[in-house]
Specification:
Blueprint (H helix, E strand, L loop, with lengths): L1 H14 L10 E4 L4 E2 L2 E2 L1 H15 L6 E4 L10 H11 L7 E4 L5 H15 L3 E5 L5 H10 L3 E4 L9 H21 L1 H8 L1
Parallel strand pairs: 1-4, 1-6, 4-5, 6-7
Antiparallel strand pairs: 2-3
Helix pairs in contact: 1-6, 6-7
């Protein structure tokens, strides 16, 4: 059991440091907190990375994800779209998933609309510690998924280490029971 968790932790760490340079159908940015329409520093780091990937010509489309919490005026998806447009990504190239309140829900919604959007292969953008779990989720949902994590995440030091351990536990359990089942347990 210890060896399984240690290997999973190593995989979480290494996936967060890998990058997918080949063209895909869409870049999917995972949502994070927004403050009255302004991306949080964590979401902004992800979006800045999306702009880099967009400018490199990695994909013809960007999918922004994330709903809103009770009392919010804006969704994470709306905040992301606005930020990306202001950064030079054409509005016509951005589509949104604005219902998800978790990574699983957002990726499920993306997978359900993938045919409508003409999407089969994606590169998922998030924080390094989050990359392996979201890639495995997307694959479970039928997408050809790759990752490209931001290297400017404000989550650093002990907070990042804690997130790596948490994600490793989630990946370890999700691989055994499936991420759909895991989501139903913790959802």
């Amino acid at each position: 059991m210890f060896l399984y968790l240690a290997v999973t932790l190593l995989q979480v760490w290494s996936t967060g440091r890998s990058d997918h340079p080949s063209p895909v159908d869409a870049i999917v940015v995972m949502g994070a907190a927004q403050y009255d329409g302004r991306p949080s520093p964590q979401l902004q780091a992800r979006l800045d990375h999306v702009v880099e990937l967009w400018n490199d010509g990695l994909a013809p489309m960007v999918i922004v994800t994330g709903g809103k919490r009770p009392g919010d005026r804006f969704t994470e998806s709306e905040s992301s779209r606005r930020y990306l447009v202001d950064a030079g990504v054409p509005d016509r190239a951005i589509v949104g998933e604005d219902e998800g309140s978790s990574s699983w829900e957002s990726l499920t919604n993306v997978a359900e609309r993938a045919d409508e959007w003409g999407v089969r292969s994606v590169v998922l953008v998030s924080d390094p510690f989050h990359s392996l779990r979201i890639r495995l989720m997307a694959e479970e949902l039928g997408l050809v998924a790759h990752t490209s994590a931001t290297d400017t995440s404000p989550v650093r030091g002990w907070a990042a280490a804690r997130e790596h351990f948490t994600e490793a536990a989630g990946v370890a359990v999700g691989r055994i029971v499936g991420f759909s089942t895991l989501e139903s347990w913790i959802g």
